[in-house]
Amino acid sequence: MTHSSPSLTDTRPARRFKDKLTRQTVRLGGVMVLVTLLLLFFYLLTVVVPLFHQASVSLSERFTLATPGVPQYIGADTRNQLVYGLDDRGVLTVAKRPQRSETPTASAVLRAQTVLQQPLSSMDKPAISRVEASTPFLAVEKTPGRVAAWQLRFRTQYQADASVVPQLSTMPAFGRELIVDASAQPLNQLTVAVPDSLHGQTIPPVLAAVTQDNRLVVFRGTQKSMVPLSQAVDHIALSGDGQRLFVHQQNRLAIWRVNGNDLALRETVNLDNVVASPVTKMSMLAGGRSLLLQHQDGTVTQWFDVVKNGEPSLTEVRAFSPGEGVARLAPERHRKSLATVDETGRLSLVHATSEKQRHFDAQFTALPDALAFTPRANGLIAVVDNQWQWLTVDNPHPEVSIHSLWQKVWYEGYSSPQYVWQSTSADDSFEAKLSVVPVIFGTLKVALVSLIFAVPMAIGAAIYTAYFMSSGLRRWVKPTVETIEALPTVIIGFLAGLWLAPWVESHIASVFLLLLLIPIILLGLSGVWRMIPRYVRRRLPDNAQIVVIIPALLMVGVVAAYLGPWVEQVWLGGDARQFMTHELGIGYDQRNALVVGIAMGFAVVPTIFSIAEDAIFSVPPHLKNGALALGATHWQTLIRVVLLTASPGIFSAVMMGLGRAVGETMIVLMATGNTPIMDWNLLEGLRTLSANIAVEMPESEVGSSHYRVLFLTAFILFVFTFVFNTLAELIRQRLRDKYSNL
């Protein structure tokens, strides 16, 4: 029986208290880590979930507006204070929108106060057209065969209550009026386009009309072009830049090219071979690149130019069926969304690119005479039986859907559906392309390439250091390699982007020779070493292999540097990059996956080496000694005993390196070129999840679709890390249970 000393007996309660306090502190720390992870998880979800909320529409107010005729084009100012309507008699009416607060019941019909009413035509039924821009442009047949164009501005007065005042002025680009038909016959069709300025230079607006005798007349500013047509025209429409004119004649759709004084027929599409239902109306989608065709059966089709055989060709890209016999359609001003109302009065909101559709119960008692979005797309205006209805629209993220995030999407200007990430552009007609697939692909690609470089070197170095190297040399090598891990990754990325990438580009042949010769030389040296008799090897000093390997590797570098230019000159036409690009068709970016793989491998090697070396070195000596005593060689002992016993630690080391590569930011940010493309070519650039967040988060608008999708990519990165770590722990535990009895 043992007896404790008096000092130990006196301190036992205090020691127990300290042990208990330590256990509770560690337990609390673990719980707080889990709570922090859960809070981070749910915070990311709170930012991401609104992306998938369904759109909602609610009636705000009803009011009447005194207009002589039936409104054809309606709209509002950006502050939603004024509404305007251009009726079928050519009368423009602007009124102050009545607010719901003015009446105790939302169902009551209010009366709007007219602030401007001006007839723009002396005809009973003139041809009219409108361009929905920051300030609406109106083209009206003033007298038979003569057209005038106006611009409706909304000026804010801040002196009193920040009220909005309408101002109507003629467009100087067309002069006072345009003589379309000198014979003074009424026009059948009229359309107008007002392109945005390009590089500070004003682009003249374009006006197109069809006369009663089927002549197509186009004005580009005051320059006039005219072409006779063989048959009657049903509908015409101009692209947003005014360079394409679409003319619908029965079952044919003709595309005319408008360029200065030239008016040339580009192509003709036979609609009978493409669509099954007759066309009832044409309109342009936001941005003016896509043409929307409304069909008699309620289908809406989207068309835009696709390059085929080097020439643009108008192609049907999508078809929607939002209702039965769609009769009214209103596109948004800035987004690729549109509202439709079918014959039953059912309202639908559709986003063309994401193919997101939201249908509502009957919102109208009859088919609206006119339908339009407000400039900021937060309201929808409809005129039904001379009664104006204002509907509040909540649809903040129509461009985001499961389809647009995870599947191929056919965007305007692309030859086929693709995965694309491009969030911003200088073009006003641009639509954000937010597919997360390219950045996920880039993350996995850079992780795989970096591990291909890092794992063989790190594991091989760990095996040699822990198993073959003398203890004295190990005390120097292991801390030295671990010190490299403390090197800031921004320094590695800086050197990789500004020094390594240009050097690899100018010595591409030498780099590939080096990557080819190093494994061959190492395997050759290994074979030569095994050919040396055992009694000779026993007489050699410890770590004699290093004395041979290091000079051999240096010699390989010298040989590769010497042979690279010769190989390039003899076999690659003197320029390896040009040969790969032009002869082999392999793209090359200076900052590519090969460069980032080398740099990332350099950063990941210390992590994998340190953990794997500790695992191998920690294998109990009696296992190694027992295997050797039974007659196994050092290699047999290593492969069949040491590595199997250390496999949980080695696997953990590889997974730690994978986690480091997946989450690395600065190296991939500075050495990859940040091009979100999907190509397994090691000489092309890429973009990762972490780098994408670092680059674009400072520039994103808080609460926007771009902002929330970036949080979605952060959530995906979080899930990736969690899944990888969970799988790694499960596999590590199974390996430990399997080989723990060795």
From TrEMBL:
<feature type="transmembrane region" description="Helical">
    <location>
        <begin position="481"/>
        <end position="501"/>
    </location>
</feature>
<dbReference type="InterPro" id="IPR011044">
    <property type="entry name" value="Quino_amine_DH_bsu"/>
</dbReference>
<feature type="transmembrane region" description="Helical">
    <location>
        <begin position="25"/>
        <end position="52"/>
    </location>
</feature>
<keyword id="KW-1133">Transmembrane helix</keyword>
<keyword id="KW-0472">Membrane</keyword>
<feature type="transmembrane region" description="Helical">
    <location>
        <begin position="707"/>
        <end position="728"/>
    </location>
</feature>
<feature type="transmembrane region" description="Helical">
    <location>
        <begin position="446"/>
        <end position="469"/>
    </location>
</feature>
<keyword id="KW-0812">Transmembrane</keyword>
<keyword id="KW-0813">Transport</keyword>
<feature type="domain" description="ABC transmembrane type-1">
    <location>
        <begin position="440"/>
        <end position="728"/>
    </location>
</feature>
<feature type="transmembrane region" description="Helical">
    <location>
        <begin position="638"/>
        <end position="658"/>
    </location>
</feature>
<dbReference type="InterPro" id="IPR000515">
    <property type="entry name" value="MetI-like"/>
</dbReference>
<protein>
    <recommendedName>
        <fullName>ABC transmembrane type-1 domain-containing protein</fullName>
    </recommendedName>
</protein>
<comment type="similarity">
    <text>Belongs to the binding-protein-dependent transport system permease family.</text>
</comment>
<feature type="transmembrane region" description="Helical">
    <location>
        <begin position="593"/>
        <end position="617"/>
    </location>
</feature>
<feature type="transmembrane region" description="Helical">
    <location>
        <begin position="544"/>
        <end position="563"/>
    </location>
</feature>
<dbReference type="Pfam" id="PF00528">
    <property type="entry name" value="BPD_transp_1"/>
</dbReference>
<dbReference type="InterPro" id="IPR035906">
    <property type="entry name" value="MetI-like_sf"/>
</dbReference>
<feature type="transmembrane region" description="Helical">
    <location>
        <begin position="507"/>
        <end position="532"/>
    </location>
</feature>
<dbReference type="InterPro" id="IPR015943">
    <property type="entry name" value="WD40/YVTN_repeat-like_dom_sf"/>
</dbReference>
